Amino acid sequence: MNPKTPSSLFLLTAVILVMFAVLAYAGDKSQCIGFADYLFSQEEYYRAVGEYKRYIFLYPADTRAVYAQFKIGLSFFHAHQYHNAHDAFQSIHTVYEHTSLRRKQIAALWQARACLYTGSFTEAQTLYTAIINNPASPALYNLAQYHTAWRFIMMRDWKSAKNAFTALGGVFNNADTNSLIRRAAVDIPHYITEQSLMKKKSPTAAGIASALIPGLSQMLGKRIGDGLAAFFTVGILTSVTWYFFENDMNTYGYITGGMSLFFHAGNIYMATSGTKLWNKNRDQYHRDILIKRYWTDAYIE
Q: What's the mean pLDDT in 77-99?
């Protein structure tokens, strides 16, 4: 064997050092993204956001940078920071415009879902429509249709929600549709009917009832204490006012009469606003039940 020359030894050493540097660099990247994923799995979402951002800062040209950006959006979403989640998902379209259409549309589904939680229903529908018109896959088309129907639930428009899911029931009967989605398309209209969600208490009727008999609306709504308090307060003030006027004590009559009118007006306002709040709380309760049952995250990650 010929002895190696100094130049060949130097070259071999350089190659080995470069190989170790490349391996160390790749290992550090994997550890960085792996640690961020670990934090996410432990539901430490804010720390996960910091690690994903660090990864993007250190390796902006890496192929996993878009994945890190997507996980930032998921982290914010699960931390209930919906405005930040919206912006993170949107950046996948603006910053990573060369990423695949499928990844962009998955991000758009999450972006639209964040819109639903912030009340930006029009923007959500715009995002869903864009996917429906140019889907990356049949599964994403079905998801966009499914989420469009969910928009009505988030708006607490139960009649439109029932009609939308009923219409989807016949469409979502193919192999490209998640089984949970197929079941939801059938179950949700039945749930809306069974719970009588399309029937709401009328704030106007509640106001009229309380105007005629103070506290009647509250008592009909099983708020007996509030109803009796309103009835006796307005009744006593009205009786005292009548007494003052009957005995020519007009000044006192004007004072107690004003107080009676004030409390009576407040009673009517509380009846109408309380009815609206009851409707809202009931809708929120049933909406949350449906979300837990039929709106899981697994099929849009």
A: 93
Picking from 105, 34, 18, 29, the residue whose alpha carbon sits closest to that of residue 60 is: 29
| In contact, 119 and 104? CB cutoff 8 Å | no
Evaluate whether 144 touches 109 at the Cβ level (below 8 Å): yes
User: How many CB atoms are located within 10 Å of the residue 26 CB?
Assistant: 10
On whether residue 109 sits in a domain, the answer given is no
| pLDDT exceeds 70 at position 2 | no
Query: pLDDT digit string (tens) for 93-105?
Result: 888 878 899 999 9
Q: What range defines the domain where residue 191 resides?
A: 120-199
CA nearest 272: which of 196, 187, 209? 209
Cβ-Cβ contacts under 8 Å for 68 (sequence gap 6 or more): 33, 36, 52, 53, 55, 56
Surface-to-core class of residue 20, CB atoms within 10 Å of its CB (0-12 exposed, 13-18 middle, 19+ buried): exposed
Q: Tell which of 140, 169, 199 closes a domain.
A: 199
Q: Looking at per-residue confidence, does 281 or 9 come out higher?
A: 281
Cα distance between residue 180 and residue 183, in whole Å: 5
How many Cβ atoms from other residues are within 10 Å of residue 187's Cβ? 16
> What's the total number of domains in the chain?
3
Instruction: Kindly tell me if the per-residue pLDDT of 35 is higher than 90.
Output: yes
